[in-house]
Inverse folding.
């Protein structure tokens, strides 16, 4: 009985995190972007500095008509948002936020592979949406999404493999248990490659060619309205939370900190994740969008060699010094 | 690909039968789940090859491959299950969809997608499936996997088995993949130099990146 209760409680906590954290990131994005651009951002909804803006947005989305284009492939069109969103919920289950087995939704033996595999599945949602919309812009967006995933998943996988080599395990909990502070400079190249490739996989600016709103009017999501469109947006922000959480766990030591790692480890995890999320927003405001060919070139000629170099460095250090 | 899925589903049935001695008449929950997932996988695989809608076929393939991953999970082979999802669902199917979208992916039925060789294909598929099932039945006739004991499919066990007992086949497979990679590059180069630009060219280069990607993924999972 207590076991069942324990499982239910963990699932509930993960679900609540899944519903609230993306909204927090979204609200932060509203405000941070506004202030970086010399604006105020939302100020009215909820009273204090527009804190309830995204709730108001949600209500607005729920009220809109759910339109399916006449020429679309109806069932796949309707299924796509769920395929895009659910993988991130599953990934959150495996991300440890504190020391010990009490602070992770589900301990997995091959956690690194699980999170990368399931994150890759989310892209299928965009592909399905792009194809099923019966719209040229959507199809173009879907094509670009697929090309981007193919280019950027490889460096992500290689850098994650580098951390797994360093720790001698592919379990996320095990990697955190093995973490030492000097891994930070040792794996810094890998961390940068992982984070940048993750941004590209989420199609966040400056890697947002697949959804470029001024060219192909939001790509695969052109035809979506109402709640289904909101689900795609939620998937993007859930993706930011997952990516920042994973970068924290794999490269920044997760719950390790200069002090208080025993009781307050989860604060460190959340703090590092929040700082990374801020960086994600910052990058959106500061960098212009990369062209499609620049995107591919960046991945194949820069990120992949860097990731391979990181693996070589990890191997050499591991064999010679450890 | 679908042949493999079908064979996997059929093999699922045989493992179940082979497990008959300890408790054939009172199957455990895991065994029932295994059988049901096997049926779903088989069904998805059959729909994959029979549907008239090209993109639907690719999406049913996702269901079939995902079902196989669940089967691995039920047999406690966690590492293999996630690699299955990573390579097949995450990469191969995405590549397939990419290729379809680049060339031709009409919404609705495409009657010209049917080949005249369907009966030959069926015969080959049945023969391949029969051979695989026979091999599996012959090899694992009395083997009984104890799911409650120490997990026999963790990353550690898999890695040790792969690099202690199966190093030679593993490396031979690497060489095979390398040959495929080089072959794909040669083919795409030749098509580019020839006088036939257009869709064929794009398809060929798509295959090349696909092969290289799969190969590198294999490297990554080592």
């Amino acid at each position: 009985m207590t076991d069942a209760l324990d499982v239910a409680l963990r699932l509930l906590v993960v679900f609540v995190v899944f519903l609230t954290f993306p909204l927090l990131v979204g609200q932060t994005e509203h405000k941070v972007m506004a202030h970086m651009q010399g604006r105020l951002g939302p100020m009215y909804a909820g009273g204090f500095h527009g804190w309830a803006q995204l709730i108001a947005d949600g209500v607005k989305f729920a009220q809109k008509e759910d339109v399916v284009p006449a020429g679309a492939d109806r069932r796949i069109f309707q299924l796509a948002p769920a395929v895009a969103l659910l993988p991130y919920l599953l990934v959150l289950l495996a991300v440890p936020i504190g020391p010990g087995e009490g602070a992770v939704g589900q301990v997995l033996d091959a956690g690194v592979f699980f999170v990368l595999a399931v994150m890759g599945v989310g892209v299928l949602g965009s592909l399905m949406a792009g194809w099923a919309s019966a719209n040229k812009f959507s199809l173009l967006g879907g094509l670009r999404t697929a090309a981007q995933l193919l280019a950027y998943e490889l460096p992500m996988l290689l850098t994650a493999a580098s951390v797994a080599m360093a720790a001698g395990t592919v379990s996320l909990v095990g990697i955190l248990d093995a973490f030492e502070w000097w891994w930070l400079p040792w794996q810094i190249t890998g961390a940068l490659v992982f984070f940048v490739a993750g941004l590209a996989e989420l199609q966040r600016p400056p890697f947002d060619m697949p959804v470029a709103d001024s060219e192909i009017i939001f790509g695969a999501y052109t035809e979506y309205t109402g709640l289904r469109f909101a689900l795609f947006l939620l998937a993007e922000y859930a993706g930011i939370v997952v990516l920042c959480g994973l970068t924290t766990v794999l490269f920044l030591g997760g719950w390790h900190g200069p002090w208080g790692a025993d009781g307050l480890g989860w604060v460190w995890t959340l703090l590092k994740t929040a700082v990374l999320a801020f960086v994600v927003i910052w990058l959106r405001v500061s960098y212009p969008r990369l062209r499609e060919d620049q995107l591919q070139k960046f991945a194949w000629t820069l990120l992949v060699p860097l990731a391979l170099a990181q693996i070589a460095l990890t191997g050499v250090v591991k064999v010679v010094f450890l | 690909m679908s042949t493999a899925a079908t064979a996997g589903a059929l093999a699922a049935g045989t493992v179940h039968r082979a497990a008959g001695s300890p408790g054939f008449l009172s199957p455990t929950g895991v065994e029932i789940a295994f059988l049901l997932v096997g049926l779903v996988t088989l069904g998805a695989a059959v729909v994959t090859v029979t549907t008239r809608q090209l993109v639907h076929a690719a999406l049913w393939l996702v269901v079939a491959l995902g079902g196989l991953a669940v089967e691995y999970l039920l047999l406690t082979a966690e590492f293999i299950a996630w690699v299955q999802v990573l390579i097949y669902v995450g990469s191969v199917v995405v590549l397939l969809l990419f290729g379809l979208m680049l060339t031709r992916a009409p919404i609705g039925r495409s009657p010209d997608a049917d080949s005249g060789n369907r009966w030959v294909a069926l015969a080959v598929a049945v023969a391949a499936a029969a051979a695989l099932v026979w091999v599996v039945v012959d090899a694992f006739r009395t083997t009984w996997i104890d799911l409650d004991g120490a997990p026999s499919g963790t990353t550690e066990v898999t890695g040790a088995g792969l690099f202690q007992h199966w190093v030679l086949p593993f490396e031979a497979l690497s060489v095979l993949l390398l040959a495929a990679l080089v072959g794909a590059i040669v083919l795409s180069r030749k098509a580019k130099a020839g006088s036939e630009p257009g869709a064929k060219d794009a398809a060929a280069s798509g295959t090349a990146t696909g092969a290289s990607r799969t190969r590198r993924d294999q490297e990554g999972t080592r």
Summary: Chain B has two domains: 2-148, 166-222. Chain B touches chain A through 32 residues (CB under 8 Å). Residues 1-20, 196-222 of chain B have pLDDT under 50 and may be disordered.
